[in-house]
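Quick one: structure tokens for this chain, please?
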Amino acid sequence: MTDLSEIPNIIAFIRNAWPVSDSSLRRLADLIVRKDFPRRGIIVGANTQCGRAYFIEDGMTRSYWLVDGEEFTTSFSTEGSIVFSMDEVYYGLPSEEYVEAVDPVKAYSIDIPRLMEMIGTDLGLCNWWRKIHQDEYRRIHRSHKERLTLPARERYIEFSKQFPEVCRRARLGDIASYLGITQATLSRIRAQR
């Protein structure tokens, strides 16, 4: 059982997306369990089913695919966010990507079936879930458009506006991978700013 005072970043993230009630947040807090991950610790592994979703109270994560030994960064998540395997949640399949801690992460985990049950029975949490997915779809759509239409420098400028915290905290190579450019190119772009 987690006290709401222990998870201010998670509550702020949830309520920033949708005005979820105190009673709904208390029910959620009753189901989450603290789990800490060291820097570079794997939170979700590819080709596995962990059965859990993780709310990030402190720290930052990076999601990536491993293709022929090369890592391709797909997203970053910071304080308050929730991370999980979409393949597992929606299709009951093993994850296709990894989620790792960029720096030490204090997370609160919840069993996926329990989370889905709450979302299915609590209108506030259902609307929050819909809203965060809607926002994530827009982020992915925008990122795809920028990769196809913008030169590398403009892609980085847009990324830094949208994710200033990630620019301060993530490794240069991980940001370059997300943007679809080389680390050397990103170093030159950052040196020009």
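Strands lie at 33-37, 42-44, 52-58, 61-67, 70-77, 82-83, 98-101, 105-111.
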